[in-house]
Amino acid sequence: xxxxxxxxxxxxxxxxxxxxxxxxxxxxxxxxxxxxxxxxxxxxxxxxxxxxxxxxxxxxxxxxxxxxxxxxxxxxxxxxxxxxxxxxxxxxxxxxxxxxxxxxxxxxxxxxxxxxxxxxxxxxxxxxxxxxxxxxxxxxxxxxxxxxxxxxxxxxxxxxxxxxxxxxxxxxxxxxxxxxxxxxxxxxxxxxxxxxxxxxxxxxxxxxxxxxxxxxxxxxxxxxxxxxxxxxxxx
Length: 235
Fold this sequence. Notes:
By secondary structure, this protein is mainly alpha-helical. It has helices at 3-43, 55-61, 64-93, 98-103, 105-135, 143-184, 204-233; strands at 189-192, 195-198. It has one domain (52-233). Helix 3 packs parallel to helix 6 and helix 5 packs antiparallel against helix 6.
């Protein structure tokens, strides 16, 4: 091997090492930018925040933009499969009077059936996000910050939503039971505005029990919604 060949080989090795060093510096810069983003835009702020990345941020984070996509994709799926359907279901299916409990039985039944589907969708999306999270390879300085952001934007809201479903479903089922009870005893049970009365004293205990259950579940749903809202805004 000639001296010129050795010189060329040396230059080639130097260029490769410089390139590798440059890559390392670039990764460190991307990681630093991503950590700062997570700390200032998610972890360090009260409430739930899932900012949309700009083109500049996506470029600045490099491969870590895909790490953020795990959080963002879950929240997009949560919005489409749970939050929006829940809002629509409550808006369309919640009766505003005792008379509507009977008149809108079919709407109430649709809402009750939809709760199980929404819960299944939430469980599915959470499992997908958890699997993607577990598969991420992250340096020691990034991992705890990312884990905190993931808990804030994925784990905690998923748990909060899971606590809403049972009470809403039970509340709707209690309303269905009341509607069926009134239909079965329509000659003895009358609804007038906010009042429901029966001319048969033997029916009163069952009627009172159903009304109490509806009231209790209504209060539970309100409290669950308040907790969820406080979580979102950071109360």
